[in-house]
Design goal:
It catalyses: a hydroperoxide + [thioredoxin]-dithiol = an alcohol + [thioredoxin]-disulfide + H2O. The strands form three sheets. This protein has a five-stranded mixed sheet with strand order 5-4-3-8-9. The protein has a two-stranded antiparallel sheet with strand order 1-2. Strands 6-7 form a two-stranded antiparallel sheet. Helix content is 27%, strand content 29%. It has five helices and nine strands.
Length: 157
Amino acid sequence: MTVRLSPGDPAPDFTLPDAHGEPVTLADLRGSKVILYFYPRAATPGCTTQACDFRDNMASFGAEGYRVFGISPDAPATLERFARNEGLGFPLLSDEDHAVAEAYGAWGEKKNYGKIYEGLIRSTVVLDEQGTVSLAQYNVRAKGHVAKLRRDLGLDA
C-alpha cells in the first residue's frame, strides 16, 4: 500500500538532477512555497497538456511566491527536449529510480484498461516555506488540474 502525504507532514528531502543534469535539493528551496507535480512521461498528450497549463500559469504562481517543479521518471536529456519543445519556464526533475515519487506517495499500483501494474500516480504536493506539506492531491487529471489547484490554493478570488 502506498503511503500518501497529508497536510502538516514534513516533506521528504531529496536531490534530483534537472533537465541539464544540475542537482536540485529541496532543502535549498526553504523559504519558498513549492509546488511539486509528478507526471508519468514527458511529451505524452496528457503530460504535455498539464505541463503547458503550469507554463501558462507561471506568472500568477510566481506572483504568489510559488516555485513549480515537474518530476518524472524520464532521463534529463528527455526532460531537456520536452522543456525546450514546449517552452516550459520551470524546472523539470529526473527521478529515474522513482525513489522520490515513492517517498511522496506518487508511485504505486495503477489500473489501466483492466491491467494492474506499478507506475507513477499523477500527483501534486504543495509545500510551505518551512518544507511542510500544505496540500497533497493524488490521482489528479491532466486536463483542468492546474485550474483546480489554483482554486484550492485560493489564487482565483
